[in-house]
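Practice record 12: protein with heme C.
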Amino acid sequence: MLFTALFHTHKLVVILFAAIYLLKTVLLLVNKTNTLQRFTNFIKIPEMVISLLFLLTGGYLLMDIASFDMLFILKLVFVFTSIPLAVIGFKKQKKAFALVALALIMGAYGLAEVHKARLGKRHSFTEEVITNPQAENYVLSLHGKALYNAQCAVCHGQDGTAGLSGAKNLQASKLTEGEIEAIINKGKNTMPRMQGKFNDQEMKALLNYVKSLRQ
Ligand code: HEC
């Protein structure tokens, strides 16, 4: 929650920061040095607040971010080269400095967007794996196997053929899912009643696994 709020603040502040750069650069380029001077004085306090917020939110996000890849480092380099260049450029009215500073800050913003898009892609890739039916079946069968080995294998054996204490051979069983579920719930002869022991997800996994023992 805090992270998202800070992230949005950071983004807004960056946009304002870049907008001020842009305006100043344009004024400098068209030789409106008086207007530039007035604008610089006018924006001085807000710009200080913005710069401070920019560094504070950025610093905080930095501590919270785990993905220090090349793009990210490049972005930091861009930002920290841009700031002194801009200071010199606007103060000494050096157009080239101002232009490079503007390009760098815009570049940093662009890199941040690319970085985010990449993270986003990674996220949807994970999502795809989770919602992939094959992966889901795999998880279901592991779940079923674990439950079966813990609750059923004592009598039926891991492969379903042990037949201990009169247990039926599950590989040869021809029962439907509904019938298997009924036997699990109600029990039969020495097979204990297990009503309420498994939730829906567990029962589904178990039924799938019991049927998969058949050849
Ligand atoms: C204490 C031993 C025991 C345990 C534990 C046990 N069973 Fe059984 N199971 C039996 C016995 C005995 C029968 C045969 C009942 C009869 O028909 O007389 C049986 C029968 C069955 C049948 C019916 C097979 C058929 O074709 O008639 C299924 C299916 C089955 N068990 C599944 C399971 C599952 C799944 C579990 C674990 C959740 C489990 N059993 C745990 C003893 C056990």
